[in-house]
Each structure stands twice: as structure tokens, then as C-alpha cells.
Design brief:
The protein is α/β, with parallel strands linked by helices. Helix content is about 45%, strand content about 10%. It contains nine helices and six strands; from the N terminus they run βαααααβαβαβαββα. A six-stranded parallel beta sheet has the order 3-2-1-4-5-6, sandwiched between helices. β4, α8 and β5 form a beta-alpha-beta unit. α1 packs across α4. The longest helix is centred in the middle third of the chain and has 19 residues. The protein is globular and about 50 Å long. The structure holds 1,6-di-O-phosphono-beta-D-glucopyranose and magnesium ion. The site of magnesium ion has 8 residues, from loops.
Length: about 220
């Protein structure tokens, strides 16, 4: 039985990956090197400081900065990223998301947002998504990044739902692993072969309904 759906944010409900990438690329350019779209892919679902390490490694600068300087670089990237976020609107909610969230609520599902992002609240407010969620767990409330199950386990605990009744929607392999380690089923969203370990994989939410979810994960 499924009573609770947990949604990752970036790459599942909205496409903020493009803004993360632009902000990281601008930081890299300021430091004097290029950060390619392929390298940007590897920051998806990864925490801010771990993403900074990926960027610095791409420029051969992983040992150049003190921890304090790295905090300042991450803060600089985040200020730039927030300039993009503050221009977001509900137009940027990905296709099929709103009908699915409304359908899940109509069937009495509890809905949780489970994101690694410390900016998750700003994003869902900008995009009008906050009213759909019973509980929000973001990067400010967890100490261990995915694939650690903390973010999903904490959400289920807050709503007193057993993990076996939860299904997690994720676009990153680390998120699918986190769901499995939390004892939850998962839906991989997107065509990336790295999502193959999910209980069900779908290309997008377009046309995807509560009934499709039930039949897909019970297989
Ligand atoms: P912030 P998710 C993740 O969000 C993003 O996928 C990842 O690219 C980003 O580095 C991370 O949040 C931290 O974001 O810098 O805003 O705290 O996919 O878990 O919703
Ligand atoms: Mg994601």
C-alpha cells in the first residue's frame, strides 16, 4: 500500500539544473577555466560544497583554496544562482507535474518535498508549488547528502508514515539509492540509464497518473 509520495525538486518538479550549471560555469570562468555541460551533469543531486569540489577539480584547482575561501566561492555561486531563481515563475514547473500532484492529493496521498537544496523553499514559492506539500525537508534540515537516506527518512518520520508506504520520485541515481536505503520504493524520472535501479522509470510526468503509479510499482 502506498500512502505517501516524496518528491525531489531539482530535475523532477522544476528544471533548475540549467541555472546551477550557468552559475557554476560563471564561477569557473572567473577562475580562468571552462566548465562543460557534461561536467555540469555530475553535480546533479549533489550538495553545494561537493559540487564546488567537482568544479574545482575540473579546473585542476582542488587544492588551491582554504575551507574559508571555498565557503566564499560557494556563496558567490549561490548569489548568482539566486538571481536566476528569483526570476522563476510557475511556467517553469515541468510538464505533467501539476495534474499529477493534484491527482495524488485527490486520492488522499500525503506529499513531501525531499530536496538537497538549501534554496528549495524559495523555488517552490516562486513556482507556486508550496500548497501541494504536507511537509518540506530541504538541505537546511539534513546533515548527510544523498545517497544517505536521511532526507527521505526524516520526511516520513515527520508525517508518521512507515517507509514501506512511501514512494520517492527522483532524477538522480544517488536519490534512487537513498530511497532504497530508506526502505522505500522509487520512480526514476528521465531517460538516464543510471536510474535503472528504480522500482519504475518514466521519461516524464506527461500523462502519468495515480493509477499508472500504482500499477507500475506493484509490478
Ligand atoms: P543548493 P535536489 C540538488 O537539489 C541539486 O540537484 C544539486 O544540483 C544542488 O547542488 C543541490 O541541490 C544543492 O543545491 O546549492 O541550492 O543548496 O535535486 O536534491 O532537489
Ligand atoms: Mg534532483
Amino acid at each position: 500500500m502506498i500512502t505517501c509520495c516524496i518528491f525531489d525538486l531539482d530535475g523532477v518538479l522544476v528544471d533548475t539544473a540549467k541555472y546551477h550549471y550557468l552559475a557554476w560555469r560563471e564561477l569557473a570562468q572567473c577562475l580562468g577555466f571552462e566548465f562543460t555541460p557534461q561536467q555540469g551533469e555530475t553535480t546533479k543531486g549533489v550538495s553545494r560544497m561537493a559540487s564546488l569540489d567537482i568544479v574545482l577539480r575540473a579546473g585542476g584547482m582542488e587544492h588551491r583554496f582554504t575551507d574559508e575561501q571555498k565557503q566564499e566561492l560557494a556563496a558567490r555561486k549561490n548569489r548568482r544562482y539566486l538571481e536566476y531563481v528569483h526570476r522563476m515563475t510557475s511556467e517553469e514547473v515541468l510538464p505533467g507535474v501539476l495534474p499529477l500532484l493534484a491527482g495524488l492529493r485527490a486520492h488522499g496521498m500525503k506529499l513531501i518535498l525531499g530536496s538537497a537544496s538549501k534554496n528549495a523553499c524559495a523555488i517552490i514559492d516562486r513556482c507556486g508549488l508550496r500548497p501541494y506539500f504536507d511537509c518540506i525537508i530541504d538541505g537546511n534540515q539534513v546533515s548527510k547528502a544523498k545517497p544517505d537516506p536521511e532526507v527521505f527518512a526524516k520526511g516520513a518520520e515527520m508525517l508518521h508514515v512507515p517507509p514501506s508506504e512511501c514512494v520517492v520520485f527522483e532524477d538522480a541515481a544517488a536519490g534512487i539509492e537513498a530511497a532504497t536505503r530508506a526502505g522505500m520504493r522509487s520512480v526514476g524520472v528521465g531517460d538516464n540509464p543510471s536510474l535503472g535501479k528504480a522500482s519504475l522509470q518514466i521519461s516524464s510526468f506527461e500523462g502519468f497518473t495515480f493509477e499508472d503509479l500504482l500499477s507500475g510499482i506493484e509490478k
